[in-house]
Structures are given as structure tokens and as C-alpha cells.
Design a protein that fits this description.
The structure is a single chain. The chain is of the alpha+beta class and 84 residues long. The chain has two helices and five strands; from the N terminus they run βββββαα. Strands 1-2-3-4-5 form a five-stranded antiparallel sheet, with helices on one face.
Length: 84
Amino acid sequence: MTVLVAAWHPVGETTTTFAAHLHGRDLAVVRVAERGWHWRVVSPHGGLLAEGEARTRVEAERAAEDEATAVHPPTSDLLDRLLT
């Protein structure tokens, strides 16, 4: 069992949208009727880094946190931008 580390909070007055900030990234989970929960991780500049689906809110929060803290090898595009 993985422990959640971010401070998740409801967005507005709803119980279907939650957000957190972790490792410089914005995380969000949203209840999608009939499908479960949609999660996403966004960069500080608003770029979508990852997203997915989960059955429960806790699974969605865990997936978003795992993605926000994952170490990814650099892509060839990123290496080109960094080296030019």
C-alpha cells in the first residue's frame, strides 16, 4: 500500500474535483460519471505531463502522485532543446 504524500483538497464546493501540488507540478483528479476518476499532472507552465483513468479517487490520486515523482529519462526532443 502506497501512502499519499500530497495535501489533496476539494476544488470549490464540489466533491468531484480535487487538486494538489507536488514537486512543482499541479495534480488534479475529477470524477467522470460512469467511468470512474480521471487524473492529470500539469507542469508549472501549464503543459500536460501525464493523465489517465482510475476506478477510485484514491487510486487516481496515487497515480497522479506516482507520475509527479517519477524520474523519466530525457526524450530526444528534450535533449535537442537543452543542447542547442
